Amino acid sequence: MVNYTDYFSASYEVARRTFRNAVKAVDGELSAYLHPDARGAHGEKLTIDVGHIGRIDAPRQLIMISGTHGLEGFAGSALQIGWLKQLSARALNDEVGVLLIHGLNPYGFSHGSRTTVNGVDLNRNFIDHTAVPVTNALYAQLHPYLLPQWWDDNYRSACDIGIMDFRLKYGDDVYFNTFAGGQYLYPQGTCFGGFSREWESLTLERVVRTAVGHAERVAVIDWHTGIGEYGKPFYLNFGSADSEAQQHTAGWWGLDTGTGSRPHGRAQPRYQGLVFQGIESFLPQAIVAGGVIEFGTRGSVAGDLAIRQDLWLRNYGHRLSEDTRTQMHADLLDSLNPVSYQWREQVLTLGLPIIDATLDGLARWQA
Ligand SMILES: [Zn+2]
Q1: Using an 8 Å Cβ cutoff, are 204 and 45 in contact?
Q2: Ligand 1 centroid to 57 CA: how many Å?
Q3: Cβ distance 2 to 348 under 8 Å?
Q4: Within 10 Å of residue 301's Cβ, how many Cβ atoms?
Q5: pLDDT single digits (tens) 70-127
Q6: Deepest in the core among 27, 68, 320, 362, taking most CB within 10 A?
Q7: What CA–CA distance (Å, rounded) separates 9 from 19?
Q8: Domains along the chain?
Q9: Distance (Å, rounded) from C-alpha 239 to C-alpha 230?
């Protein structure tokens, strides 16, 4: 039985403070990286906080991240804090180290948005922006329908018709790949990967290279919310099914192959610029396993709508009365970080054993 309020926080500020205290309580190595040009929703400073626990020089390391998508960080933060608090009651296997990255996108975490201060989806930002641009050929056709001028029935149903036409013409898998795979031309659009690497992305590179650059075997858990059934974990893995890393991941997480999961029932998009792909490139000497673990919120209706609602509020929210804007924002928060105690307890009850299983597997993973 877990008391979810011991681990979940109601704000970025409290989450950050609780995380830092929990790292100190287990004598972890603690550092913080200050956002150079943004402040939080309450004027507070924004930092990416990093805890390194256990044998920091061990050849096997777990990297566990919260807040890649800002407000989705409440669940990931709770799992990091829950794991740390339980750790204080027992020992960590001395074969492994654990690098905890708290609030990778602290701006979005504090302001209740998925994206960075620049409107960038950080989980599409880890590409070489100086190389040949990534193409998302059909995105231009879809873009006009994603952000209605007003978030009301008239404008939204006109857009919904455009989106439905696109889906009928190309099919649901192509639609989802276009919507979610990543695009690099429309800053107001969905899953915009930026024109250059974001501060958060460069900071993660610095932290990973410095802290675990020596590691030979690395597991990644990047916690997210919004895909999957209510309160259930949903796994997104990005390696080829027959790779060593993928087979280990599948074993730890109880998956058939570890690949081919279908977010919202659709084929997995050809994601560009993922945090996971970034970490692989920062650690060329290591085999990197793991991936993204989501916790479902409102089932299949959550994902696309939450992304669009977030963008709409960021771009056009000022057009609304304060009361309407407040209600819409509360709905967005609840759609990716449900208030219900049932959801929060289930995230902890199901999520904490996944961390233990990953660490057990990592400790047994022989070179
Ligand atoms: Zn996410």
Answers
A1: no
A2: 30
A3: yes
A4: 11
A5: 999 999 999 999 999 998 657 788 889 999 999 999 999 999 999 999 999 999 999 9
A6: 68
A7: 10
A8: 4-129+185-364 (3.40.630.10), 139-179 (no CATH)
A9: 26
